[in-house]
Design brief:
Length: 129
């Protein structure tokens, strides 16, 4: 459960980081799949094959997130939706790490910790949003 919460926090942190990097983005929740791959490529030096696979993973995730947001607008069960989103994020993280080399995974995990710390800082009012 703790890992699931960390993954959830990571995904929210990435979305928040992307939003902050893009000047606020008025309602924009996540970066485009290509932008996310570019960001990971800068951190992890991805191969072309990894970029292709991760673009597919992030595109599928974006479509799933869009459907979930639409369901929520229809007045869906928030607890059930939160559970679905946590599972989807955990599945997505597993797909991402499956594409990475052992060294890339270490760097990715360290970056995730940084993102979680930034998100926590913003949540506590220490951020600039």
């Amino acid at each position: 459960m703790k890992k699931l919460m960390m993954i959830c926090g990571l995904m929210l942190g990435i979305a928040g980081f992307a939003n902050a990097q893009q000047g606020g983005g008025q309602g924009r929740m996540m970066m485009k799949p290509e932008e996310r791959v570019k960001q990971l490529d800068e951190k992890l030096k991805l191969s072309d094959d990894q970029k292709t696979k991760l673009t597919t993973v992030f595109t599928e995730q974006a479509e799933t997130m869009k459907k979930m947001r639409e369901e929520m607008q229809g007045g869906g069960d928030r607890d059930a939706m939160r559970e679905k989103m946590q599972k989807m994020r955990a599945d997505n993280d597993a797909k991402v790490t499956a594409v990475l080399t052992a060294d890339q995974k270490k760097t990715y995990e360290a970056w995730q910790k940084e993102q979680r710390a930034e998100m926590e800082k913003r949540r506590q009012g220490g951020g600039n949003n």
